[in-house]
Write a structure and sequence with these properties.
- The complex is a heterodimer of chains A (424) and B (292).
- Chain A is of the alpha/beta class and 424 residues long.
- Chain A is 43% helix and 12% strand.
- Chain B is mainly alpha-helical and 292 residues long.
- Chain B has one domain: MetI-like fold (Orthogonal Bundle), CATH 1.10.3720.
- Chain B contains twelve helices and no strands.
- In chain B, helix 3 packs across helix 6, helix 3 runs antiparallel to helix 9 and helix 9 packs antiparallel against helix 12.
- The mean pLDDT of chain B is 89.
- At the A-B interface, helix 1, helix 3, helix 4, helix 17 and helix 18 of A face helix 1, helix 2 and helix 11 of B.
- Chain A: This is Raffinose/stachyose/melibiose transport system substrate-binding protein.
- Chain A: Keywords: Transport.
- Chain A: Pfam families: SBP_bac_1.
Amino acid sequence: MSVGLVAVAATAVALSGCAPQDDGVVTLNFFQFKPEAVGNFTDIVADFEAANPDIRVVQNSVPDPDTAIRTLLVKNKVPDVLTLNVNGNYGELARACIFADLADEPVVDTVNPAVQQIVQDLGTCTADGGSDGDEINALPFASNASGILYNPEIFAANDVEVPTTWDELIAAAETFQANGVDPFYCTMKDAWTAGPAFVNLGGTLAPEGFFDDLRAEGSDLDKVSFSKDFDESMAKEVELFSYCQDDFASRDYNAGNKAFAEGASAMYLQGSYAIPAIRANNAEAPIGSFPYPVTDDADDRVVVSGVDVGIMIGRDTPHAAEAQRFVDYLMSPDVVQAYTEAQSTFSPLKNAEPNADTALAGLEPYFSDGKIIGFIDHQIPASIPLVNLLQSMVISGDSEEFLRDLDSEWSKVAARTATQRQGK
Amino acid sequence: MTTRSFTRTPRTFYWMVMPAVVIFFGLHTIPVLSGMFFSLTNYAGYGTWDFVGISNYINLFQDSRVLSSYTFTFGFAIVSTILVNVVALAIALGLNAKIKFKTAFRGVFFIPYVLSILIIGYVFNYLFANSFPAIFTSLGLDGLSGNILSDPNFAWVGIVIVTVWQAAAFNIILYIAGLQTIPAEVYEAAGIDGASSWRQFRSITFPLIGAYFTINMVLSFKSFLQVFDQIVALTAGGPGTSTESIAMVIYRGGFQGGEYGYQMANAVIYLLVIILVSFVQLRFLQRKEASI
């Protein structure tokens, strides 16, 4: 028995790794969530290491970052520096006090307050007696925008103007269909691709404070509910998806990017983050964008914007000073600017140059004027299979069943988390 | 030490099994026990937690998503188990007969078992999305020209096809081993009595490989109840939630959805269900075995 124990102990020592280094170089473990940006960050890290020979940064990128980060947390292995998509998952982790407070960082003052607010709204750590919103647990590095992408050449060839109201959008789709062009290329093999339309239509039409009211209700949804308040927006989503190409249920996101790059459809229901992937298939692909025209009033149009990449530091990192130097470098204007140009994103810094990318020209003014709303799916707990329910809805065309299912999932989770800690 | 003096051999055996016991206990039993412990808490997988008693278990039985995953998994496991055993037994009989290139054929039929199920799943995912529809369209069968995996009512059929294709190999090996234990004399005697080959199979072959049939049924049913990898590669539980297996719900809710404690309760129930089902199967099937 004792031999076995010794063996186990020896293995444990070997596995713990992380031996102290003798040459004075500190190694930072950098968790980088975006597989398509590994190249950009490799260059950034190389420049940083050249200027800071006493720090080595190891970039780790995994295919399923949201799951990977949770499994790291289960093992209490929080990386030193992280990038994450700032979504509902991030909010849960921030409230669980996984990330350091960056409120004292000088770079905080360079960030556009409207964008920082989107981060703060998702939740912050309140461990040291602070109230919600005091701490800054993530800095926005790149913002995205969700609207409708379109092919200007196909629009011109069919004499269609960019639609500004819902009726014009449907009329445009009818025109394309009559001319034998697929209005939208849809990719329902990947459930999440029904999400962009959901956040745009639902987010624009949802009543003010809908999610706060919903959370306040707990598990019995009598005053507000998805069935009551999302019926119009989801009927509209089903209507949009009725204009997809025939095999829309069996195509995936990669196939969609390739097809749109080759001019297979007039429009594409994806946000700015799809642009680099489309250009990877065809560097010369004609791409334009416009915000969802949800109502019959052109002034109602807003752009859904989220923080595509946020930067965090692990709360208990032993290399806090080095991690801060790396974060300061990441947030420097030149680095942010170069990244936004490479990845077709919007800079979250004050006084940033507007993104000159023509594909974003239709959305840029809304972003600059602050006519932005956050992603409403970030308000829905990760344990609700939202995208799967959406996928069922657009394939079957039954928005009422979807809303009933979503209500029942919401109230089940609300009942389960009634026992959950609040603000601990 | 007792007064009965041990010879050296038993002690050697103890030293041989001890490392395995220690590793198994450390890497398997302790995680199981900690999972059972967390099923009584509201642990999200990180941060702090509180005891919530058995409320996770109560909520579990009211969760339609969990119940539908049990329905799906049991339906899938029953269909796959029957198909795998029928296919495997038929192929094993063929490979046990006096045919040319017997060894080569056995090798070919064993290949799917060596390949990773994830890789197979992704390959079939491509075939279902692109190749099969093209083949059926060119044959003029427009009814089959869609992707079966994107149809909520029939996606499970695609998963069953891939599963049977991959899993049959292992059961074929077990059946071949069983068939080789039957002495040739009994067949000769049956042949002299004028028994047809179907009669020989029904009255001699099948009863005599009863023990192999039992172990095949139990093992395949158990592994199909745990179905996970091929679903990840083929449908990711979709379309909608129509092909979510129990393991998938546990993984999604526990590791992605921040409901670690709740899904650990699901996992404990799941463990008990699998143990119970395997036990019932063994008791029922072992009574039907024959021996010479």
